[in-house]
Amino acid sequence: MTTLIAEPKEALEKYFGFKSFKGEQEEVIKTLLKGQDTFVIMPTGGGKSMCYQLPALMTEGVAIVVSPLIALMKNQVDAIRGFCEKDSVAHFLNSSLNKTETAQVKEDVSNLETKLLYVAPESLTKEANIEFLKGVKISFMAIDEAHCISEWGHDFRPEYRRLKEIINQIADVPIIALTATATPKVQQDIQKNLGMKDSRVFKASFNRDNLYYEIRPKTEVLKQIIKYVRDHEGKSGIIYCLSRKKTEEIAETLQVNGLNAKAYHAGMDANQRGRVQDDFLMQEVDVIVATIAFGMGIDKPDVRFVIHNDMPKSLESYYQETGRAGRDGGEGNCIAFYSYKDMEKLEKFLQGKPIAEQEVGMQLIAEVVAYAETSMCRRKFLLHYFGEEFDEMTGPGAELCDNMRFPKEKFEGKDEMKMFLQAAESVKEAHKARFISDILVGKNSSEMKTYKMDKNPFWNKGAHKDDKFWNAVARQGVVNGLLRKEVETYGTLKLTVEGREFIASPKSFILIKEMNFEEVDDSPVSSTTKAGGGTTDLLLFQMLKDERKRISKQKELPPYVIFSEASLEEMSMQYPLTIDELTKVSGVGSGKARKFGQPFLDLIKEYVDENDIERPNDMIFKSVVNKSGLKVHIITTVDRKLPFEDIAKGKGKDLNEILDEMDAIVSSGTKLNIDYHINEILDEDSIEDIFEYFMEAETPDIGAAEQEFDGDFTEEELRAVRIKFYSEVAN
Questions:
Q1: Is residue 532 within 8 Å of 573, Cβ to Cβ?
Q2: Distance CA 473, CA 539 (A)
Q3: What's the pTM?
Q4: 454: left (phi > 0), else alpha (psi -120 to 50), else beta?
Q5: Count of C-beta atoms within a 10 Å radius of residue 555
Q6: Are domains 211-348+383-393 and 538-556+563-611 of this chain identical in fold?
Q7: Which of 63, 83, 351, 528 has the CA that lies 20 to 30 A from 134?
Q8: pLDDT of residue 18
Q9: Which listed CATH number (1.10.150.80, 1.25.40.10, 1.10.760.10, 3.40.630.30) goes with 538-556+563-611?
């Protein structure tokens, strides 16, 4: 490999303006420049990209960078171009380019103007691209997100398995493989597949000592999320969900509760995703509710919290996603909601896949369950998974997890640990933790009968404890080095040298009582149910109705315009005392609360004081989950003045359904300006007549309006003007 600049530090300052490298960056670069295969395992935010970007600029020819994500490629290319005079210095080659753009890329590469060419693995496998690259001087090959090669990685891509074969066809050049998450098994897999067994390996510590890890039982999740985001209002955060639908539900619920949030998922078009991403980076949006499609390559240093609405499918995914918090070294809170039932659902999704893939998937899920249910130091557990030892008493950030901050009961477990190790030994170290636990509790399952385990010397010996207890013993034995999981055989337990020594000469072993996660439902909290389970205060309800009648006369408005009866009923259950609390009542937006709310709040306060009312601890939040994504879609498309037919078509709805949702939007206090539509279907006089009718009517009922106008106007016309009326008068 011919270098244009001899010293990496000199090149670093010339191209990027930095005077020093991070961690082992310099040593990595020097190794690659010597023509040696290099394997870099570095956590998110550790500066992996620099390890191939700088050598590419320093050497003759073009570096081929294999990257799995089109969005990530664009970000990387834009970043490099920002440091260089000519845009031709970096290009990407993928399916997003048209023929003209592709031709331009190839011309710049052929003219030796391009130093970095980012290629999707699918593009690299195309014969035309292979032939083209054969005629190009290549400096080296970089495989980014190298864990995609391994079936044991959290984002396995079959096309990555062919990379070595294709690289061999193109050129004999050094390879640098990079990943932000790799267990020892994944590391071996990558090296074997790429023929990099003799590569030099650089592995940075995976400990993010500023991150706080917490697992919560999955109950009343929406309510908890809203409270958390509200308590951290103005701070940047990411909420991860497994389904697109759930991202929209949560984003919308946050929005109607006055919080600055947007959804992000792969089902949105590229422009939409780009806008959301930019809004987040530019601090126009505080919270992104996303699937795992969000975050790859996003370098936003001040993300203060990452919430997992659903546990991911692997600890690698969890580590990578939580790693987007606190990249600036400041506060980073990582909260995940866990339910074993969710993990069972993930296991069901594996059905129908090849047996080997099912086994891998089940093992990865089992590790997530073990992490969620453990009561030991979460940092120690996580780092052990990545092959790194950690001292939970003195290690950096040791105290930053729920288990260490609120420690669980500890007890002497020497005898129990010895029994488990002996039971594992008795089955020739050929089974998983669950199998051994079933022996100890004497579980009469078909598997136990098949293996005739009732004859095992340890059958039913541990029946004084349940299987959860014994699984916890297994976990703590693994993390403390008495047992090891044999990955190749999908998690069978083998005794270590230390484990055999323990059987021969047991010593004190402190066990930690495990958390008891009850099976709970993730059902949305109803917006019409009183916290604490109370009922309507009928006296207060009547007083609120009288107050509404008084104000309606004073303002010369129909009573229903001020607050609906349903809203008054909820007020008489929740006893709101501030404008902020009032906005949490269904049907009351911030505009409506400020416009009409104060007299009602004064009345409620007086009533609460006089009657010594004990209010619910938590105000109910507004829920719009049943109309997931539709509200936001309507508001944004109305702002763009789209025809109603197009708005309906965009969500696969009919016009009546769209009008229903518009009714709900304006009734709850949000303004909608649909004049552009009304002016197309009605003349000015007709609009005025209908508007005046609703101003004087006792009820907003459309049937009554149709009777009044005796068929002069259609239902659609009447409903459209009623929406205008609510928006202008009630909000």
A1: no
A2: 58
A3: 0.63
A4: alpha
A5: 13
A6: no
A7: 83
A8: 87
A9: 1.10.150.80
Structure tokens at 704: 């009554």
DSSP 3: B
Give the span between the Cα atoms of 574 and 149, in whole angstroms: 55
Q: What percent of the chain has pLDDT over 90?
A: 49
Cα distances (angstroms) measured from residue 33 to each of 169, 211, 344, 660: 22, 35, 48, 65
Model pLDDT, residue 305:
97
Q: Is the pLDDT of residue 617 over 80?
A: no
How many Cβ atoms sit within 10 Å of the Cβ of residue 680?
10
Calculate the CA dihedral of residues 568, 572, 577, 578 and round it to 10 degrees.
Answer: -30
pLDDT-derived band at 531 (thresholds 50, 70, 90) equals very low
pLDDT for residue 592: 84
Q: How many Cβ atoms are within 10 Å of 449's Cβ, its own excluded?
A: 10
Average pLDDT across the chain, whole number: 87
Could you tell me which residues are beta bridge partners of residue 93? 119
Confidence of residue 30 (pLDDT cuts 50, 70, 90): very high
The DSSP H or E segment spanning 130 is helix 127-134
More confident residue, 355 or 497: 497
SS (H, E, C) 510-550: EEECCCCCCCCCCCCCCCCCCCCCCCCCHHHHHHHHHHHHH
Instruction: Please state the CATH superfamily assignment of the domain spanning residues 211-348+383-393 in this structure.
Output: P-loop containing nucleotide triphosphate hydrolases (3.40.50.300)
| In this structure, CATH architecture of domain 8-203 | 3-Layer(aba) Sandwich (3.40)
| CA pair distance 27, 201, nearest whole angstrom | 11
Encoded amino acid at 108, one letter? D
pLDDT for position 299:
66
Query: Highest mean pLDDT range out of 6-15, 45-54, 392-401, 694-703?
Result: 392-401
Do residues 493 and 484 lie in contact, with contact meaning Cβ atoms separated by under 8 Å?
yes
Question: Residue 116 in 3-state DSSP?
Answer: strand
Q: What is the mean pLDDT of residues 510-518?
A: 72
Contact 371, 318 (CB under 8 A): yes
pLDDT of residue 523: 36
3.40.50.2300, 3.50.30.10, 1.10.10.1390, 1.10.150.20: CATH of 625-730: 1.10.10.1390
Mean pLDDT for the stretch of residues 613-617: 71
The third-level CATH classification (topology) of the domain covering 414-508 is Arc Repressor Mutant, subunit A (1.10.10)
- Residue 534's pLDDT is 46
Tell me what percent of the chain is helix, strand and coil, each rounded to the nearest 5. Answer: 50, 10, 40
- CB of 264 closer than 8 Å to CB of 288: yes
What's the CA gap between 353 and 488, in Å, rounded? Answer: 19
pLDDT surpassing 50 at residue 520: no
Q: Which helix (H) or strand (E) holds 4?
A: none
Q: CA end-to-end span of the chain, whole Å?
A: 69
**Given a cut of 60, is residue 528 above it in pLDDT?**
no
Q: What is the mean pLDDT of residues 680-701?
A: 89
Q: Are 458 and 439 in contact (CB under 8 A)?
A: yes
Residues 6+ apart with CB under 8 A from 128: none
Instruction: pLDDT band for 160, please (50, 70, 90 cuts).
Output: confident
Sheet containing strand 175-179, strands side by side: 90-93, 116-119, 62-66, 138-143, 175-179, 38-41, 200-203
pLDDT at 318: 94
Boundaries of every domain in the chain: 8-203, 211-348+383-393, 414-508, 538-556+563-611, 625-730
Interatomic CA distance for residues 502 and 483, integer angstroms: 11
